[in-house]
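Minutes, project check-in

Agenda point 3 was the complex the collaborators sent over. CS summarized: two entities, 675 residues total, and the question is how they sit relative to each other. Sequences were read into the notes so everyone works from the same version.
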Amino acid sequence: MAEEKKASRKKIQAGDRMNKIMADYFYGLNEAATTGRQKVAWCTSVGPAELLRALGFAVHFPENHGAMLGATRMSTDLIPAANAIGYSPDICSYLTADIGAYLKGITPLAKAYKGIESVPRPDVLVYNTNQCRDVQDWFAWYSRELGVPSIGITSPKNVNEVTDAHIEDVALQIEALVPTLEEISGGRLDMDRLRETVSLSRECTELWKKVLETAIAAPAPLTFFDGTIHMGPAVVLRGTREAIDYYEVLLAELEQRIKDGVGAVDEETSRIYWEGMPVWGRLRQHSELFFHLKASVLASTYCSSWIFPAFDGKDPFRSMAKAYLELFIVRSDKYKEQYIKEMLAKFRIDGIIYHDAKTCPYNSNSRYGLPQRLEADTGIPSLVISGDLNDLRCVSDEQTKTNVEAFIEQIVEGR
Amino acid sequence: MSTPVYVGIDIGSSRTKVAVVDAERQLLGHSVRKSGTDFSATAAACLDASLAMAGVTREEIANAVSTGYGRANVAFVARQNKTEIGCLANWGRHCFPEAITIIDIGGQDNKIIKLDAAGRRSSFKMNRKCAAGTGAFLEEMSYRLDIPLEAMDGLARQSEEMVKLGSYCTVFSATEVLENIRHGKKVTDIVKGLFYSVIKRVLEMDSPTERVVMTGGVVAHNPYLVEMAEEMIGRSVLLPELPQLAGAVGAALYALEDKD
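CS then shared the predicted structure for the full assembly.
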């Protein structure tokens, strides 16, 4: 059993640079909203951000704000405010935390960035239901509250093979957004700018993929917990040069770690795959828990969900549609099983942990027998832990700890 | 050192259990007490009682391993700690040289642990963050029904027409129980319904393999649960002599294995 001393994974030096990029991004958004110099669009995490950027919008991602509310452990106190106006504690806790924060006039941005008082007020809300239906309901609330339009894409779900028909459907829906967005932005869509933005997104996600794949090395130079932080630019700055520049720096640091044989976790003895959302309010505790057990959680579906190989500047609308459809969360269990199986082999995984998030069924892939099927197929043991992304009332720390410790014991003793 | 002994201390949410074994894996002494709020003091009292039963002193402890929720609170004697799942599996490995499923019903947790024919742990499941199906559920119900906990097993055995309770939740089950009392149902039939509910909650966690053994304080005090489980899964279920001590004995066996 591990000692109870405080120690944690190796710090990534590029983090300071990322913090600066993220600060610039939030100050830019704030300036756009407070001066009116630039129109503000809110966009779901895998919504048509490329189109919005090409039309000159400053883009805010409420899911990112939801994660910040979780990571700062503000969410659990805010969720009840949304529950009280009819938004159930059983639905997305990003949604309930974010609406609760709005109702209480609170944002972690104000704490982190001096001079910012609130999230940027939107001129338009643009969703893609490829993540879930909740994003549409989330934006609908703000639409009513703020009197701004909410428009978007209704995506197919449980897709096995992404077909031309799917792509045609979503591409047409993206194109159909253009007239409304042009009217709000006050400008015409410049197709060259859209092509360039899509190309930049592609470049960003390719670098992000390379960053994550450094964890194929043993010991792995980064963990899932690093990934959840360092994915920030890939989430909010997709389609910009800043994100690309950042990932070049981060990649160089991680490649150097590989050359030096330096792992994120000292004496890595087991390699773990994380399936599902992070528990944002427990990132540090979970990181330390695994660190003490010499277990490296080094690959995940979640962090890998911002890799979009389909983006192609030559065919922006169709390639955006394809990229948004190929997303793991959009796919059937048959596809998901095969995807995870390949990840387990690629990253030489000893065990897989499924986080069954109470309020996020779409990111909880342990509810339809997938762990049992995958375990029977691969022989790689699995563990399901109950928790939530943002609502810490659904998290039992002691049970998580016992489960994880017993799981790592099982892996080590089984050798 | 005359008789080196190996100690396992299992500090559960409800009870603390200590087992003392010798180098031949023979159980020499044991003790069970309420965990209370001072885990260290309870563990110390339990340890002393077990050592007295074994006829040895603290100086003869060659190694000790702690387990259970309070496993980190007994550094005064155990340098190492293991999870209760690991300890139960270790106990199972030593007692049953075959593939087996251990169903443990504790005060706060239920566990289903599967061992393969070589004694390796192949999987385990714990109840979700909910007390339904655990000892805490029966404690709450004994309080609501104003029946001593130790009387429940006898009452359940007298049932002629079991009352089926449908709820997942301890609080909602209590409401259902009150409703049944209002409708004039017999207490014996309600208590059997509560037992049935415990077994149902446990068995839905995983599917047991051919050989099944049940452990934990709840079956130690309510062996009728084992008979009901047999009926539900359609085959015999093993009940060891001291089911509440399985985790502590597993910890003591770890202490013996890791003595160097």
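Noted in discussion: Chain B is about 40% helix and 20% strand.
Follow-up: revisit at the next meeting once the mutant set is ready.
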